[in-house]
Structure formats: C-alpha cells, structure tokens
Amino acid sequence: MIRVVIPAHLRNLARVEGEVHLDVPGIPTQKSVLDALEAKYPMLKGTIRDYGTLKRRAFLRYFACEEDLSLEPADAPLPQEVADGKEPFLVIGAIAGG
Q1: What is the mean pLDDT of the segment spanning 54-72?
Q2: Does 36 fall in a domain?
Q3: Which of 45, 55, 93, 98 meets the CB 3.0–4.6 Å disulfide criterion with 7?
Q4: Which of the four pLDDT bands, split at 50, 70 and 90, describes residue 96?
Q5: Count of structural domains, the chain
Q6: Domain that holds residue 48
Q7: CA distance 43 to 10
Q8: Mean pLDDT of 77-95
Q9: For residue 81, which of 2, 14, 20 has the smallest C-alpha distance?
C-alpha cells in the first residue's frame, strides 16, 4: 500500500481527507503512483501532470523521505520506505513570489 499526500486544493477536488492509499503493482515509481492516483481519482488528471506530456506541473514538487524527487526520472524506483508504506509520497505545492 502506497501512501500519498496531496495538497489541500487537490484533496478537495478529489473529495478525500488526509492521505490517499493506493495499490501499485510492481516496484513503485513516480509514474506508476501518479497513474494509480489518476485512475482512482480521474478528476485529478491534468492537475498534477500535463495531459499530453505527463510532465510535472511547474508549481508542484515531489518529495519522499525528506528528498526532493521532482527532477528524478519518472520511471526511477521510489525509496524502499515508500514502497513499504512506512513513508508517504508527497505532492507539494511550490511557493513562488517576490
């Protein structure tokens, strides 16, 4: 069971509270986790990744085990702690401004 934390505005859109729990077959990657998230909550499609390219939206970042995974390849395995359900995969809204 993969634990995923998404920003509050996306939780509202998906009508969920707290963490989302997903069954992801095989070795979990950013791509497989986000594919499973969008399959379970189709209203999130296009909010985290671009519809066409499936690239991360500019103002979102991915974290796990206190590491920024945003620039890692989408097919790279996530840390074992995430695969084991000990740590969540975090989708965080980036802060910008001046």
Answers
A1: 95
A2: yes
A3: 93
A4: confident
A5: 1
A6: 2-93
A7: 9
A8: 95
A9: 2
